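Re-running GyrI-like small molecule binding domain-containing protein to confirm reproducibility after the cluster update. Everything else is unchanged from the original entry.
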Amino acid sequence: MICMEVDNLSEVPKGMIGFTIPPHRYAKVKSEGDPYQVIHNYLDANGQQSDRRALALEIYYFENPSWPDKAEVLLPLQ
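Result of re-run:
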């Protein structure tokens, strides 16, 4: 699914859906290696856990949508 952040969902174009992601605290990483491994290693080392029931986010930028080194991964925390 490809998403774009908007200010409101009052007018959703035909063929698209609108949804809201509930607020969470997130751990964020940008890495040349596997960002999920990096972030899980960090959380484990610091006694934290991700919230597996919440939505993880991957942010790519239009000017350089390269995986994994240019993407940001946000993992919701418990």
